[in-house]
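**User:** Everyone, produce a chain:

**Assistant:**
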Amino acid sequence: DANASGNIRATETDVMVIVAHKNLIAPRLEVAQELWDAKIKTAFSHKNQPKLLDQLQYCENTGIPLAVMIGDSELQRGVVKLRRIGTRAEREVARAELPAEIRSELAALQQEA
């Protein structure tokens, strides 16, 4: 697999679950588990309180194409932000729709490659 810059990806991970605030360990694990259950290759930072920028930089450096971003306001509304790392485009997605939306984004990225 090559990423947007034509480099070989350093990982097979398709999605990184990223937290925007402190104290979101449980929601981060819940979203990751939902995606694993849907057979989506998912990772997250193992630090307790990772910095947002560090998490996004990790995606760029390793070629992970998508990020699921979780914040307090999103959790309250039952949504997450789905972000394309290469273009930084992001949109809100209902959590129930997340696996299908990720598959759709991954398919679109394959077509664009």
